[in-house]
Known about the structure:
CATH superfamily: STAS domain
Number of helices: 5
CATH architecture: 2-Layer Sandwich
Helix content: 40-55%
Largest sheet: 5 strands, mixed
Number of domains: 1
Order of helices and strands: EEHEHEHHEH
Amino acid sequence: MQVTTTDKGAYTLLSVSGRMDASTSPSFDEATRALGPAPSKNVLVELHALEFVSSSGLRSFLALAKNVQKAGFTTAFCSLSPMAEEVFKIAGFMSILKIYPDEAQAAAGF
């Protein structure tokens, strides 16, 4: 799994690719810790290249969203791969997280 962090001014973009499971989700957690104990802006997680996500990965996504919310900002997800979209639907994430079709619409939603 790879996580690329890009500062987009009004928000931080995290692009995730590969497989996110119990052995790789700590890398995602490390990338989100690099945002600081209290993120200073909105966070957008882009998932078009995510091939697999397990419950460990879902837990990491929720932990990020809670941390960002505590700091007074929003976490959104965009460009979900078909697999990620299916897992988010099954897990009920579509109704509890902000999901957008692409980065432009997510940025406008902040």
